[in-house]
Amino acid sequence: MTMSASKRFAAALLLLGTGWAIGYAQQSKPDFMLRIDAPAGETIVECVSGCEFTGARDLGNPDAGRMLVYNYSCRGDGVERCPGKVAGWVIR
């Protein structure tokens, strides 16, 4: 007895969804989180040795990569401080 095309399609979607869920669950959580409070303008956070960064707002985004240098900026009328968060991983 063979499966109908719709049942095969449903089974394929179920397998694909299961694989995606398992892969997503295996994403590592950051080892540390930095809170930054800098003057308005551009802020550069650089890992000199043994770490990688991603912006905290990008956590959970599978397309967001890790980097050695993370920069962000804010500016505008009346903006004096530029807060931010950076997630980090220790590279062993």
Largest beta-sheet characterization: 3 strands, antiparallel
- Poorly predicted tracts of residues: none
Task: Strand order, main sheet: write it out.
Answer: 1-5-3
Helix proportion range: 10-25%
Protein structure class: alpha+beta
* Share of residues in strands: 35-45%
Task: Give the integer mean of the pLDDT values.
Answer: 85
Shape: elongated
Q: How many helices in DSSP terms? A: 1
Rg from alpha-carbon coordinates: 20 Å
Distance between the termini: 53 Å
Number of strands: 5
Provide the succession of SSEs. Answer: HEEEEE
Overview of the structural elements:
The mean pLDDT is 85. The chain is 23% helix and 38% strand. Strands 1-5-3 form a 3-stranded antiparallel sheet, with no helix packed on it. It contains 1 helix and 5 strands. The longest helix is centred in the first third of the chain and has 21 residues, at 5-25. The protein is elongated and about 65 Å long. It has a domain at 28-90. It has 92 residues and is of the alpha+beta class.
Task: Set out the fold topology.
Elements (H helix, E strand, L loop, with lengths): L4 H21 L6 E8 L1 E6 L4 E5 L13 E6 L6 E10 L2
Short description:
By secondary structure, the protein is α+β, with helices and mostly antiparallel strands. The protein has one helix spanning 5-25; strands at 32-39, 41-46, 51-55, 69-74, 81-90. The mean pLDDT is 85.
